[in-house]
Input
Amino acid sequence: MEILKDIVDSKHYIFCEGFSDWTEAIKAAAAPLLAEGIIENTYVDAIIENVKEYGPYIIIAPEVAMPHSTLGGSGVHDTCISFMKTEKPVVFDPNDPTKNARLFFTLAATDNEKHLSNMVALAEFLLKEGAIEDLLKAKNADDLMKAHCKYSE
Amino acid sequence: MIKILICCASGSGTSQLMAITAQKACKSAGVEANVKHCPIAEGKSSARNYDLVLTSPAFIKMFDSAKAAGVNVYPLKNPLSQDEIIAALKAAGYIS
Output
């Protein structure tokens, strides 16, 4: 399970206080990938449009969002994941608090095989008892590495 | 062997995650299953060729015609929840 280690090694992480608007949160969560040219603004816009059209289907568990759009979609140049943690929950649906999120795993994918192994690793990690709780307490990259070490045994 | 189709908007994120969860859940429940995932646009037309369709609550209405044709269609709220998959397998009568 190398997901968190890869995120820390590649510096694809960001810690924020919070956002009053979920579209701003998605832009911030994608910023580490955008800064390196791994994705373009068109991809971030596509994610936001999808959520506007279909609702917050990117919330994969309470507190956990996985912003993504189509595999091999336009404006994506590599296969990677970036991580964002916010202190205050980002609200996607004011009527449904189970759609609030503080952890964001933004996906970019061009290579199906690598994307699949990333997803399996992410699922394996998030399914570990206590893993989500530990990430919710994380303040910096050191905490991410601690969580990586704790759950990769 | 039951054929399961899992759909989400993009066919690569949420449905991929649901497919991983479904494979785990079927394995633990002793159900032999062939799990495929794809975007809604594709799944809408191919749904009739499957025994069981799982998708986010937001997309459930898109499968009304498949449901009318006898396909079991169930929503999954939490893509990481094996319990929800097990509940769908029970509701569809594949496990007791």
Summary: The mean pLDDT of chain A is 93. Strands of chain A lie at 13-16, 59-61, 63-65, 80-90, 101-108. Chain A touches chain B at residues 50, 53-55, 57-58, 60-62, 66, 68-71, 73, 98, 107, 109, 115-116, 119-120, 122-123, 126-127 (CB under 8 Å).
